[in-house]
Predict the structure.
Amino acid sequence: MDRTDRRLVALLQENARRSNKELAARLGVAPSTCSERLHRLEEVGVLTGFHADVDPKALGIGLRALVAIRLSRHSAAEVDRFRAHAIAMTEVIGLWHVTGPNDFLVQVVVRDAAHLRELAVSGFTTLPEVTHIETSLVFEHLGKPGLPDLTTAS
C-alpha cells in the first residue's frame, strides 16, 4: 500500500458511502484510477467489507454486556468447540480469545436483564467445557470508526 492507498482507506473508514467521484477528487486522482485502486484493495483483502451503523434500540436491543468465560481445559478441540458455539449465537457480536484468568471475552446484546440471564444460563453454563462465567453490563460504549494506520507510525 502506498500513500494514496492509505488515504483512500482512511477516507472510506470515515464514510464508506462516498462516491468514487468524491474519493477521486479528495485523492487528486482520476475516477478510473480511484476505482482500480478500490478494486485492488478489495481483491488483496485490505478492504474486507462495508457496513452500516444502526441504532440498537431500533432492533430491540436494550442491554450490552461482556461475558468473561473460563474453560475447564484448553485443548484445541474444546477451544474450537466453544468458539464455534459462541459465534453462532445470535446475541454474540464480538468474541475475543484472551490471556489472563479468563479464556474468552464475549460481547453480547440482549433485550433486557431476563434475556441476559437466559443467555448466560442456557447459552454458556450448560456447556461442559465452561467452568466459570462473569457478566458485566456495559453502561456506555464509545468507539472510533476504523483502524489507525500504524505502518507509518514511529
In short: The chain has a mean pLDDT of 94. Residues 115 and 130 are 20 Å apart (CA to CA). Strands lie at 63-71, 92-97, 104-110, 130-137.
